[in-house]
Design brief:
Radius of gyration: 23 Å
Oligomer: single chain
Strand content: 15-25%
CATH topology of the domain at 4-37 and 107-145 and 382-533: FAD/NAD(P)-binding domain
Bound molecules: flavin-adenine dinucleotide, 3-acetylpyridine adenine dinucleotide
Number of helices: 14
Largest sheet: 8 strands, mixed
CATH architecture of the domain at 4-37 and 107-145 and 382-533: 3-Layer(bba) Sandwich
Helix content: 25-40%
CATH class of the domain at 4-37 and 107-145 and 382-533: Alpha Beta
CATH superfamily of the domain at 4-37 and 107-145 and 382-533: FAD/NAD(P)-binding domain
Length: about 525
């Protein structure tokens, strides 16, 4: 049965972005409805229940910072919180802020059309509901459109086949099984060591070896937790102006590696490797811009793989050779490389022997057939644009977002795109988003959006829309900043290379969280320069 309702704002998605978006807008007195395809809150942490799933930005940073009550009322168990704990935390926040009454689950938004006469968005859901709202906030996630590979015969597989980003809620029992994992990005690298302990045999199908830094995860010390709580609010405020929106996870070393001698350079690399996590990436300020420095970091990381892996042939296969260090999203692991010393784990190099087919009981490469009982697809996402383009979004004159972005996603600040008034995108292409602590970036986007919608109400304006010129200039700036780094060289999901036919376009903003925030705030202070208000 078709039902309809009208709101000031509709928010799509109930991950970190949607939860805060609903709260923030509701606090300003707007009538808000949140629509979520899943049966509960959590977003990433609702869907990704695979063995070993956890954050890899440290928990101290990877949490909300907008309300001290949330921080004081929650205690984290680990340096990197596991998925179940983050999901419980997001349910705690949802209840603390009494958000559930404005949330609607098990409902997927299929289309969103801007009605130019009524100056509002009309959404249609898969439950047949029509929802009208003056503003639409897409909190649909940068890494939420799970991507299964196009392998012949995949659908014929008779055993269990699970994508890491759509993991069964009651878990998967791999005991006694022969398991195949396809994919060695962050999801593969987190899950492989845990699955190896559960399965009888594990075969890892690797197309590209990835750089991974040890996590050195550990339980949180209660004294550290208490210290964190005491100073969190001021530390978080300071983190907003850093390159990656963190204060606890790592400290950036604002020194060129070229200004120190070889001994000091190796010592800094070693110190950060021993500390664990993303801090290694910030060993020097030119690690991602200077090829020599990057090569040295890459060689340091490869040497650590050779230290750990017993079989020299396997070690070489696990050493990334075809992209600069951290030009693909850096992984953070617990015992990933050591897992290949286990007698029940084998590595298959798909560069040498690609998969040709999946049969009901096996994975077949050009060289061999591997009989398996279960397949894990750790094959990633149609990142940054996938969830948005899965919705038929139509702006002025009925133009579709897919058409507008056919050569790549163009935005102004990664928040709006010209021709789509009152459509706000949270952490979209053109914003620091996936290159940062995402919670910091999400909070900034939600707060900017809330202030913007409030400003429109205060100034009697019905619409805000990015100007094409401002958008063009922003896209050129994003592109220029990316080209100052080695990042666009890799065939990564940052450039859409993992999706056949996706236009190659470096999507996130490499200019850093702090400088991005300054710019976005200045634009707002200048009466939303580069936007048309009507
Ligand atoms: P999501 O959490 O992806 O939520 C989007 C929601 O929108 C989903 O629930 C989805 O169902 C819903 N949705 C989408 N389309 C529709 C539609 N059409 N209709 C209705 N609902 C819809 N980032 C970090 O900074 N640090 C980390 O350590 C980190 N770890 C990660 C680990 C994993 C396994 C993954 C996959 C990502 C990780 N990320 C990490 C990135 C992570 O996605 C973000 O940190 C953050 O959780 C994103 O929140 P979000 O609310 O923007 O999007
Ligand atoms: O996905 P990925 P992910 N045949 O795209 C391979 C975040 N995250 O889910 O590189 C064979 O990185 C593919 O190979 P190649 C984080 O931002 C964070 O692991 O394309 N292989 C690659 O090895 C991360 O970057 C955490 O050659 C195929 C892998 O599958 C992002 O989410 C944990 C293939 C996909 O790697 C995505 O990570 C998890 C095919 N047909 C995720 N298709 C944390 O730790 C793809 N591959 C916090």
């Amino acid at each position: 049965m078709e039902r309809s309702s009208t709101y000031d704002v509709v928010v799509v998605g109930a991950g970190f972005s949607g939860i805060y978006g609903l709260h923030s807008l509701r606090e300003r007195g707007f009538r808000v409805r949140l629509i979520e395809a899943a049966s509960g809150v959590g977003g990433t942490w609702y869907w990704n229940r695979y063995p070993g799933a956890r954050c890899d930005v440290e928990t101290t940073d990877y949490q909300f910072g907008f309300d001290e009550r949330i921080v004081q009322g929650w205690t984290w168990s680990q340096r990197y919180a596991p998925q179940a704990e983050i999901l419980t935390y997001l349910n705690y926040v949802t209840d603390l802020l009494d958000l559930r009454r404005d949330m609607q689950f098990d409902t997927r938004v299929e289309s969103a059309t801007f009605d130019e006469d009524a100056t509002r968005w009309e959404l249609v859901t898969d439950t047949g509901e029509r929802i009208a709202a003056q503003h639409c906030v897409m909190a649909t996630g940068s890494l939420s459109a799970a991507r299964a590979p196009d392998i012949p015969g995949l659908a014929s597989f008779a055993g269990g086949c699970h994508h890491t980003g759509r993991w069964p809620h009651d878990g998967v029992d791999f005991a006694g099984q022969r398991v195949a994992v396809i994919g060695t990005g962050s999801s593969g690298i987190q899950s492989i060591p845990v699955i190896a302990q559960q399965a009888r045999e594990l075969t890892v199908f690797q197309r590209t070896a990835n750089f991974s830094v040890p996590a050195h995860d550990r339980p949180r010390d209660p004294a550290d937790e208490a210290r964190m709580k005491r100073t969190f609010m001021q530390d978080r405020e300071a983190a907003k102006w850093t390159t990656q929106g963190v204060f606890a996870s790592w400290v950036a070393n604002d020194v060129s590696a070229l200004d120190v001698d070889d001994h000091a350079r190796q010592a800094e690399f070693s110190r950060r490797w021993a500390h664990g996590g993303f801090g290694f990436f910030e060993s020097f300020n030119d690690l991602i811009t200077d090829r020599d420095v990057n090569d040295q970091a890459a060689e340091f990381a490869r040497a650590r793989v050779r230290d750990v892996v017993d079989d020299p042939t396997v070690a070489e296969l696990l050493c990334p050779q075809d992209h600069p260090f951290a030009s693909k999203r850096l992984c953070v692991d617990t015992d990933y490389h050591a897992t290949f010393n286990r007698p029940n784990v084998a590595l298959v190099d798909l560069r040498a022997t690609p998969i040709v087919a999946i049969t009901p009981h096996s994975v077949r490469t050009t060289a061999a057939e591997f009989a398996v009982d279960s397949i894990v697809l750790a094959t990633g996402y149609d990142a940054m644009t996938g969830a948005l383009l899965a919705i038929d979004i139509r702006g002025r004159n009925g133009v579709g977002l897919a058409e507008k972005w056919s050569a790549g996603p163009v935005t102004y600040l990664g928040i709006q795109t010209a021709g789509f008034p009152n459509l706000f995108l949270i952490t979209a292409p053109g914003s620091p988003s996936v290159l940062s602590n995402m919670i910091s970036s999400i909070e900034q986007h939600v707060e900017w959006t809330t202030d913007c919608i409030t400003y429109l109400r205060q100034h009697g304006q019905r619409t805000i829309e990015a100007e094409s010129d401002a958008e063009r200039a922003w896209v050129a700036h994003v592109d220029e900043r990316a080209s100052e780094t080695l990042m666009p060289e890799a065939d990564s999901w940052y450039v859409g290379a993992n999706i056949p036919g996706k236009p190659r376009f470096f999507m996130p903003y490499t200019g850093g969280v702090g400088s991005y925030r300054r710019r976005a705030e200045q634009i707002a202070a200048d009466g939303y320069a580069g936007f048309v208000l009507a």
